[in-house]
Amino acid sequence: MFPFRRGPARVTPADVHQHTRDEGAVLLDVRERAEWTAGHAPGAVHAPLSALLAGAGLPRDAEGRSLMVICRSGRRSRQAARLLTERGAEAVDVTGGMNAWAAAGLPVVDSHGNRGSIA
Questions:
Q1: Does the residue 110 lie in any domain?
Q2: Structural domains of the chain, count
Q3: 3-state helix, strand, coil in the chain (%, to 5)
């Protein structure tokens, strides 16, 4: 069962794999372009928080799907998950962001598919 309740919930990086694989959720990275380019989770979809705050919609790959929102440390993803929930999306925040993702030994790739880094 997907971890939604009133308001944005929080999940760990380890939970993301199960929910994206088993339940079709999308990992939505809300960091800015330079951060995304340096390194992101394989299969993640990019939608910068600045664009979402300016009223941009979700990328096609994320529309109508459950969202697991990630940033570098967790502050922006909490804000984005709250915003997306207010817009009617099912969104949860990934605790600790990409820093926790990398610390858990999960893969990070750059914009060319090579080993990436967290900027």
A1: no
A2: 1
A3: 35, 15, 45
pTM (whole model) above 0.85? yes
Active site residue 43: no
Q: CA torsion 116→26→89→118, rounded to 10°?
A: -10
Residue 27: strand pairing partners: 68
The two three-digit tokens of residue 5, written as one number:
């309740």
Q: Does residue 21 have a pLDDT over 90?
A: no
Which residues form the domain of 82? 9-103
- Catalytic entry in 25, 47, 69, 71: 71
| Interatomic CA distance for residues 50 and 48, integer angstroms | 5
Outline where the chain has alpha helix (H): 13-22, 33-38, 49-53, 75-86, 97-103
Q: What percent of the chain has pLDDT over 90?
A: 82
